[in-house]
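hey
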């Protein structure tokens, strides 16, 4: 007897089926589909149980990825009697040829972030992801250019080249963020610099360790600009009220040591 649980509710049994351990992969999904009244068994995706963590394994079972039911129930040297199932919107063999990426789109002028799931063939590029995203989001103007960034712990680690293949991009551990490239960034003068701007606090309880928070961004600074001028542009961009902004301090960070800067 195998206890089936919905992957969305992994703590509670949904139904039980009496099955032979010699059933093939196709036999098992066919019985599950019949039980829940689904016409197409290829839309069932199964996930094995981890006997140690008492949770679903992180990776689902691939389409015909195991031969028999007995293979689905083995975890190292233990055998479980639990399987998790989910109903997909397209057949599993088709889905396995696709890659789904979660992309957070940051609007250029509104303070809003919308998460989009982009599903494309695995051999697609970052450029294809951005083209797909353009059809789903509101841009500040129709010809706005987009870029894709990798953000981790409130810092920008990478701008993806548009020709990079998406197959190996990981959206499990870090955030993929799409945004418009501002006009001023496209027309950099020889002595302009594109810098990273991060929000940070210092934790008195932890030896004044620097901790980042909030949304990081890029900013162009021009030769000869003072901090006072740059601050004005940051305040305008983030739309921070004067009263709040007077409490902000600005520092240059090298090796996590802040060097506080004067307006001049």
């Amino acid at each position: 007897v195998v206890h089936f649980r919905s992957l969305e509710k992994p703590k509670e049994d949904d139904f039980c089926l009496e099955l032979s351990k010699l059933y093939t992969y196709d036999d098992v999904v066919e019985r599950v589909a019949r039980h829940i009244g689904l016409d197409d068994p290829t839309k069932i995706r199964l996930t094995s149980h981890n006997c140690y963590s008492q949770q679903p394994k992180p990776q689902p079972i691939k389409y015909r990825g195991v031969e028999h039911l007995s293979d689905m129930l083995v975890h190292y040297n233990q055998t479980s009697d639990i399987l998790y199932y989910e109903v997909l919107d397209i057949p599993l063999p088709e889905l396995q040829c696709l890659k789904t990426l979660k992309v957070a789109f940051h609007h250029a002028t509104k303070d809003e972030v919308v998460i989009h799931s982009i599903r494309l063939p695995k051999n697609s590029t970052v450029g294809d992801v951005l083209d797909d995203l353009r059809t789903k989001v509101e841009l500040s103007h129709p010809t706005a250019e987009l870029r894709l960034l990798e953000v981790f712990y409130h810092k920008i680690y990478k701008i993806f080249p548009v020709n990079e293949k998406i197959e190996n991009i990981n959206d499990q551990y870090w955030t993929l963020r799409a945004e418009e490239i501002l006009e001023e960034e496209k027309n950099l003068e020889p002595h302009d610099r594109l810098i990273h701007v991060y929000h940070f606090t210092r934790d008195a309880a932890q030896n004044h360790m620097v901790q980042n928070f909030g949304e990081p961004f890029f900013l162009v600074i021009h030769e000869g600009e003072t901090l006072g001028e740059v601050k004005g542009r940051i305040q305008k961009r983030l739309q921070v009220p004067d009263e709040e902004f007077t409490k902000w301090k600005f520092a240059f960070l090298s090796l996590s040591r802040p060097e506080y800067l004067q307006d001049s």
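Residues 187-260 form one domain. The chain has a mean pLDDT of 91.
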